[in-house]
Each structure stands twice: as structure tokens, then as C-alpha cells.
Amino acid sequence: MPLMLRFELHALGRPYHAALVRVGPRADSAPHAHVDFHELMCVVGGRGQHLLAHGPEPLAEGDVVLVRPWDRHAFTGRGPDGLEFVNVAFPSSVWRGFCDLSGIGADWENAPTPPTLRLDPAPAGAAFQTVLDRFHAGPTTVDLLRFWTDLLSLVPQPPEPAVARGTPPWLADACRAMRREENLRLGTPRLVELARVSPAHLARSVRRHYGVTPTALVAGLRLELAATLLAGSAEPVSTIATRTGFASQSYFTRCFQEAYRMPPREFRQRAQRAFVP
């Protein structure tokens, strides 16, 4: 059974997490999967293999891999120097929002194996080094967006079918609007209003494009906002529960603990420490 990694246990309130990882020659990393985040990795030195459920895939300098939450994987180093790569992890919900805005990503999300881009090593490595440097200096969401756009500029031609099969504009617009606090407080009925489709059609579309029910989608957005408020403010937990649309503090605490594996107060204490894994 692979390890299941959760974003906030590593990022602790930060918008993304970045690290330089080295896997020695003939050494293997632990098999793992993700609960709630995607990651992009770029090989910046050496060579190795990406160990996947269907078998190993070679990795060389300049290779960029998108790993989705459902991809179980590990790495092994090869040659005299092993494998060295920069890894950037970010919440799946934020990545999907970026994909909605940019019109990319559907082919990558639907691919049977983690998509691998064979890019020019110098500019690809520079983009990853920049986002790693910004992480160490104090990361912001703008840094993450710059990284994504810089990386996409290196991809020769995003496949046209990705736009054709992407999230419908009406659904993308409704989900973006639901991230606003005043809409989140009104819950799923507000999502139906914003989408301007029938509840049944909304439910089918949300499940198809996001893999969850509308209620679960709204709950996830509420908890994301709550995590941000806990990490970045001193507001009482009861106030944050109200602001994010939960009926009571006890229900909010139960939902938050189920999602983040710790109660809100403990999450705040950990998030507000200057801790880098």
C-alpha cells in the first residue's frame, strides 16, 4: 500500500511547495500517491526511471512530468550520478481553476499515465529553478501562476483537443465565481444560480469534469478558504466557520478535521510556524 500524501501537511499554509530532490544511483524512493494535490517535476541532472503501475519509464534531463493525485509512483536513480529533479506541488483545485482559465489541461488530466513533456533542458530547468528560489524567499500565488505560464510557453503547441474537451465555459465561470466568500456562504443553491442550468445537468457536469458532486465541490472550496484564513489571520475559528458558510463551529471542525487530518486550531499553529519540510 503506497503512502498517501496530503498537501497541507507539507505546505503548511503556503500556496505551493517546491524542493530539489536527489535519488542516488540504484536507490529507490518510497512508492506514494497524493490525496489532494498535483505536482510538476523537472529532471535537472542525471538520469533515472519513473516507477509507475504499468512499469518504469525513463527520465532524462529536461523531462517534465505532471503527476495527478491518482498516479501511484516512485523514482529510481541510474548511472553514476543518480537522478536530480525539482518538484513543485500545488493544490489540485487551484490547478483545475488555472486549467479552466487557460483552456489547457484536459488531455493531461485524461491521459492514462502521467504526461511527460520532453523540453529543452536549459529553459525548463530555469523555470523550475526560479519557482524554487521564490519558494525559499517566501512563496505567493502569483509566483505559482508565473511558473505555470512560463512553463506553458515552453510547450511547442498545446493540443487542440484539450480546448475542445475542456471544462464548459459556463461551468468554469460558475466555479470561479463560487470562490468568492459571499457566494460560498450561500452554498450549492448559489452554484446552481451561477451556472444557470438545471440541478441535474449541473450534477452531471460537475461529476464529469471534477469527479465530485456539487455539494462536495462547494464543501472543498469552503475548506480551502477556511485553511487560507486560518493560516493568514487571527480571526476566531467560529468567525471563520461563519464566513465560509458552515452552519456551526462544531460541524466546521468535524469537516475540517476529516479533510486535513487535524482540527482547525492545530492547523493554524502548524501553518503559522516557519517550517520547511
Automatic annotation (TrEMBL):
InterPro entries: AraC-bd (IPR003313), AraC_XylS_family_regulators (IPR050204), Homeodomain-like_sf (IPR009057), HTH_AraC (IPR018060), HTH_AraC-typ_CS (IPR018062), RmlC-like_jellyroll (IPR014710), RmlC_Cupin_sf (IPR011051), Tscrpt_reg_AraC-type_HTH (IPR020449)
Residue span(s) of domain HTH araC/xylS-type: 172-270
Keywords: DNA-binding, Transcription, Transcription regulation
Gene Ontology molecular function: DNA-binding transcription factor activity; sequence-specific DNA binding
Keyword DNA-binding: yes
Designated name of the protein: AraC-like DNA-binding protein
